[in-house]
Amino acid sequence: MTDWLHTPPEGGWHTLLPPKALTLLDSDQVAGLSPETVERRREQVGANVLEETKGRSSWRILLDQFTNIMLLMLIAVAIISGIIALRADEVPKDAIAIFAIVILNGVLGYFQESRAEKALAALKQMASPIVRVVRGGKVVEVPSQELVPGDILLLEAGMQVAADGLLLESSNLQVRESALTGEAQAVSKQAAEALPAETSVGDRTNLVFQGTEVVYGRGKVLITQTGMQTELGRIAAMLQAVESEPTPLQVRMDQLGNTLVTGSLILVALVVFGGVLRAGWSAFEDLLEVSLSMAVAVVPEGLPAVITVTLAIGTQRMVRRNALIRRLPAVETLGSVTTICSDKTGTLTQNKMVVQAAQTASANYRITGDGYAPEGQFTDADQGAIAAPAQPELVQLLFCGLLCNDAILQKEQGEWVILGDPTEGALVVLAGKGGLNQQQLLHQFERVSEWAFSSERKRMSVAVRSPTTSQNLPDELTATPYWLLAKGSPELLLERCQSLQRQRDVVPLDDAIRQQILRQNESMAAQGLRVLGLACKPLQSAPDDHAEADIVEQEMVWLGLVGMMDAPRPEAKEAVRLCLQAGIRPMMITGDHQLTAQAIAADMGIAAPGADVLTGQALEAMAQTDLRQAVQQVQVYARVSPEHKLRIVQALQAEHQIVAMTGDGVNDAPALKQADIGIAMGITGTDVSKEASDMVLLDDNFATIVAAGEEGRVVYNNIRRFVKYILGSNIGEVLTIAASPILLPILDVPLTPLQILWMNLVTDGFPALALAVEPAEPDVMKRPPHDPKESIFARGLGAYMIRIGLVFSVISISLMYWAYFAAQDPNVPGDPERWKTMVFTTLCIAQMGHAIAVRSDTQMTYEMSPVSNPFVLAAVVITTVLQMMLIYVEPLRNFFGTHLLNPTELLICFGFSTLMFVWVEGEKLVRKLRSPRQ
Fold first, then answer.
1. Could you confirm whether 343 is annotated as catalytic?
2. pTM strictly above 0.85
3. Which of 94, 151, 164, 343 is an active site residue?
4. pLDDT digits (tens, 9 = 90+) for 203-223
């Protein structure tokens, strides 16, 4: 492979003038490449396509589900249990049931992880299928994948750029790069200009990039990079290099599994060792069966299914709040978010340029209104009063901005939209707010000449013919047969003006006034506004069509300044406030100019006015260790490229932050995938950003993130609630089984693996699902996020589970000891083995009392309304009925190996079970007495 075809020159292609670039790529601006050269280069560099690295296969994803330590232990238990049953010529019911649970959990995990990665496919669709190139001196159309470095590509409005390239020629070329760089407006491009090496991607005006769209003008491009070497290809490579990190919930569940399995194995070893010392090696097989029951008891088999259902319920609630969750674990992760990295364009802002300020000789105006609707008021910023748009100098300003314009404002399906450049559209909307009708004025003032905007001129001028009759128009608009109207860079336009419009008079411009206007321009720019100057010139006759612009655009009358901005979303400011209240740190990461980013961030409350802004250029020079220090202080990042966004997210994660990244462009995709929660915009977002995300905002509303975060916190609180409910019981089961061969005169256990599975799946499962829909606590969004590094056992949950497990075991062991000897009494009818069923029933029914009491850590049960979560009561009733069926329905009794209990024995079981409810309520009462104000 030829290295120079892939390696850009030192400093980058943007540092070269066209002749030098043509020489390096051995190409010709007029004739292009020969067909033979194209063929050779295609063999050397490959097709102009984005390549996909091979990910995990479906089989690998499925096999990975069975590497979980708890499932591995269950598999081992099932195998040993099956061998023991087959040796005894019995049906291996326990083994079959355990394998069924293992397979079910594996399948659930597989479907959560096996979503095909579609982000790269969406990237591939951004290439134009057919392009026009110059080859062998002829213009030909070829598929975009056949482009090679050195090709001469022809661009025109409406085309998508199919590869990266250096401009050789350009005519009023404007390219929309928002998907790639995050810029809200089209970028003017021009040839014959070399730029400094450190120029950021968004400022490389002599280059065009794959995946962007030509919105205006024409151009001839020397293709410099194709395929994976383009900016789009670099994003694709970063996207595929990002590895998905486990969510906080997955980390905590792994930690839980390791703790349970380790504790279980230690307890099994102690029981087996103690049993061998007591009864000798002859009892080893009996002790092995005891160990199997303990191993099954310690694993919460129903927990994965309950968590999956809980997350699914949270997903449905979030959809109702306009947040679409693409990956289930993201539901809980939202509740743990500590930092939100937000893109500016289309996320915090409306992605619509809106004029917010205007400056004439006599007044400084603020203009209200959102979006493109021509509805708003002009407020005199100095006087604080509503200014009438009929003031002559203001009317002249609006008139000039409206007619020196190619954009069209119209209403489609009840919504105002702009056809054309957003900057020009903002001027049309401004005129509409001032009462000027675009269609009427376009009809009355016919355009007779125009001098288009270019990046060299930085201004646009038109000549219009005034109507012969006033037709209810202000006198100042019909005071001359023709008008020259101009807009553009305030500094350059001001140089061509010699007078100033002040009310109805035209007064000379002196140096003092010029300096004042320039200071006003700088002041508006410092507020993050894009500033345009407007000027006019009365003409007695139509200018010559071939007149030079530099000659016509002289001795003009200065009208004033307008400042526009991609306006913030009104609801986003409140959402930022709620984030701060909830202890979540919002940050802005944008490709826009630093002054604009700083102004928006200050207005939104993300950063203090004048706060430091870290630019992409400064970030580029930073080591990752220095960036880790910077991200702890800096709230606003401007002029950043895709790899910068990725580095920022990685630096935050290195500081143990749980990061949510919002965005809508292709440039956001790698960071969206790297972040703990990638949040894409549903309306304005690209397919690439959506496919790389964990969540999509259906309404593109930043406030929806806060609502989703609240749901995430509720989900996590409920997961902790049913985890302590389930595991308290499991610990009680394990201790009861471990105590039976020690306390009883026989080496036997009260529970079979099948009965334990019943408890873990049904008796634990139904109430746990009911606890999963417990409503939010009132202060859920007034607390800071939980420490991302906190254990699942943090904040007293581990101590609670051990304490409740001990209470369970004391109750169950006490009943077991009494029931065993009572069942052996020959004077009492019934099966001597029914003591096992009494222990089984007591453990199950005790859980029902626990489910009722565990709904709140602070409120007594009688203080809570049963209708706030009626599912708990329903689950308790249904589970109790099912447990009774296992005892009194003969087929079920035979399958599960239970025994009939008489009414007295059943009543004793219920009596012992009630003690669990009494204990939990007693704990809450003690806490209330210690903290009366709680």
1. yes
2. no
3. 343
4. 888 999 988 888 878 899 999
